[in-house]
Amino acid sequence: MSSPEQHLPSASSRGAGVPFASAAAAAGTAYVEEAVAYDAVLLAGFGGPEGQDDVIPFLRNVTRGRGIPDERLEEVAHHYRHFGGVSPINAQNRALKAALEAEISRRGLDLPVYWGNRNWAPYLEEAVTDAAAAGDTKLLAVATSAYSSFSSCRQYREDFARVLTGTDLAGTVTIDKVRQFFDHPGFVSVFVEGVREAVAGFLSDGVPADAIHVLFSTHSIPTADAERSGPREGDPEHRDLGEGGAYAAQHEAVAAYVMAEVAASVPGSEGVPWQLVYQSRSGPPTQPWLEPDVCDVIEALPEQGAQAVAIVPLGFVSDHMEVLWDLDTEAMEAAAEAGLKAVRTPTPGVDPAYVSGLVDLVEERLHGTPAADRPHVTDLGPWFDVCRPACCENVRAGFKPAASGVAP
Fold it and tell me: Which of 39, 44, 286, 345 has a Cα-to-Cα distance from 141 of 20 to 30 A?
């Protein structure tokens, strides 16, 4: 198999250094405000095992290049084995693909949807080669991750580049990507409604507002990765977003918006405490990761006078394994042990508002919607169509060629 570097387009053919891009995105501007006639949508998922025999091979794929022995992988495998070795994520993506197809058809858009995963069948290679075989060579990717970081954005873009070069389609197929949608109303509205119902329910049960705590949970990542998420210093789009970089800032901004919406719509909910927490840490103890851990925070809530907790899976688009195990199992057990009333609010899944929002993002690129006209609910948005140079660097693995962004 050839290397990605051998297939990188020349500097003259990729404008400001955006490899594998459509002509409109190749200019390297942050926002593509030019209509693009895409051939198809590429739904890019993480993937998950669908049986006990798949679990360890799947985890090997997830941790490829890190030299982790199977004995250590088995420590994580028990989460999947608890559910029969089946992750729900593939079924959820099948449902999302069908929902996207239905919404695209309803709007009269002639766009097929191809689905491929990074870590398990159906793989991205299959989706891209199927698209090319059908003559659909100008693809617009929708990744099942809303925020900016290496694992939630850049790693998908590196996989697009790897697939294009590994299939020798780099000169034939282009892949652009919709903007990170953490603050798109279609994504956020599901969390607003979930927190609204949870807080209203606790209040109706007689729990005082200041005894209700809302914990917005997302996947922890290495602190070094978080600091490098978003545009880097020296880039015109750079903003000082604090130690957690764009990753933490985006979550904080969305959580603040959700709580403001709840306070405005649920009588008596003013003053409900909330905070951003993290889960699913997988790195060695010597490596700093974002904190605090959701279960540690829950354990300490009774000392703060808490009687009830709403656990909000803000970093997740569906009820996959990190939600089922880390929140529905471990966090809910922690709440029970602490004597707290507890509710876990819904993820977007295939909620009509979320599905409609994703197709809105596709239409932004089809029509070249000006950035000023794009919906967003925080001051951080709308995020960029073309990722900035050195955005979301992984210092341990080093940079690899990536689609949908300006090369560093």
Answer: 345
What DSSP letter does each residue of 71-95 carry, written as one string? Answer: HHHHHHHHHHHTTTTB-THHHHHHH
Residues 90-124: tens digit of each pLDDT: 999 999 999 999 999 999 999 999 999 999 999 99
Is 78 in the same domain as 161? Answer: yes
The domain that holds 93 is classified in CATH as 3.40.50.1400
Q: d(Cα 403, Cα 294) in Å, to the nearest integer?
A: 34
Per DSSP, helices labelled H in 136-244 are: 155-166, 185-204, 223-227
The radius of gyration of the chain's CA atoms, rounded to the nearest angstrom, is 21
Helix count and strand count (H, E) for the chain: 13, 8
Beginning with the edge strand found earlier in the chain, give each strand of the sheet holding 138-143 in spatial order.
Answer: 113-117, 40-45, 138-143, 174-177
Q: Is 122 exposed, middle or buried (0-12, 13-18, 19+ CB in 10 A)?
A: middle
CB 47 within 8 A of CB 125: no
Q: Are strands 138-143 and 174-177 parallel, antiparallel or unpaired?
A: parallel
Q: Nearest Cα to 230, choosing from 216, 212, 242? A: 242
Residue 303 CB coordination number (10 Å):
8
Tokens at 202, concatenated: 């606790």
* Rounded (5°) CA angle 305-297-349: 110
- The residue type found at 179 is R
- Which residue intervals of 20-69 are DSSP H helices? 55-62
Percent of the chain with pLDDT over 70: 96
Q: What is the mean pLDDT of the chain?
A: 93
Give the domain extent around 8. 4-182+351-373
DSSP conformational letter for 208? -
pLDDT of residue 3: 39
DSSP at 280? -
How many angstroms separate the CA atoms of 220 and 197, rounded?
26
The domain total for the chain is: 2
d(CA 335, CA 212): 13
Q: What is residue 394's three-state secondary structure?
A: coil
Rounded distance between C-alpha atoms, residue 241 and residue 147, angstroms? 14
